[in-house]
Amino acid sequence: MAAETEAEILDAIEAAQAVSASGEGRWRQVQRLRCLEEDAARAALGVALAASHAELVPLVAERVALGIEADAAQRALDHLAKAEHWQWQIGTWATGSGEGLVSMLAVRTLQLARAWLCSALAAADPARKHEALALLTEIKNDPNDVASDLMPELRTLQARLDPAAGSESRRRTRP
User: Which of 74, 78, 94, 158 could form an SS bridge with 99, CB 3.0 to 4.6 Å?
Assistant: First the structure.
């Protein structure tokens, strides 16, 4: 049976970390930890666990737009940061450019989801707005432009964080 509650997912993370630390099947366990951390973030937000990784940003953006408790946003943010850590490690094992690009898209997806969560916490903690903007800058400046599919959500968040910059960005991208 798959873990479905945040507590069950946290137990699974603990078990996977123990196996990973032993060195046995480390690659497989790191992959598992990455997925479990993303699932824990989804559980903290109360969004679909079964949705694909590609649906992460729209789900988080929708949840933020509907309103989210700061505690849930912070827990999800912490889990997504850990998922990103594991995804960076997975990327170091890429054996070809295609694998590396796919891994970087996963990193950028996690970063954009984190930026959305930072925006939810920005009213109470102005540093979170700066963190979100820094993440957006990193995504936009990706040297391989792997996050081009994420640009609509990125522009929406940019406008949410800085309405003047968001409207300027839309003017520049019109044909």
Answer: 94
Number of domains in the chain: 1
| Per-residue confidence in pLDDT tens, the chain, 175 aa | 345 788 888 888 877 776 666 666 778 888 889 999 999 999 999 998 877 888 999 999 999 999 999 999 999 999 999 999 999 988 888 887 788 889 999 999 999 999 999 999 999 999 999 999 999 999 999 998 898 989 999 999 999 998 886 455 444 444 4
Q: Where do we find the tokens 């509650």?
A: 5
Domain that holds residue 97: 6-173
By the 8 A CB rule, do 158 and 169 touch? yes
Q: Can you give the length of the chain in residues?
A: 175
Residue that has been written with the tokens 């409207």 in this structure = 167
Q: How far apart are CA 84 and CA 101, in angstroms?
A: 15
Q: Is residue 1 part of a domain?
A: no
Amino acid at site 92: T
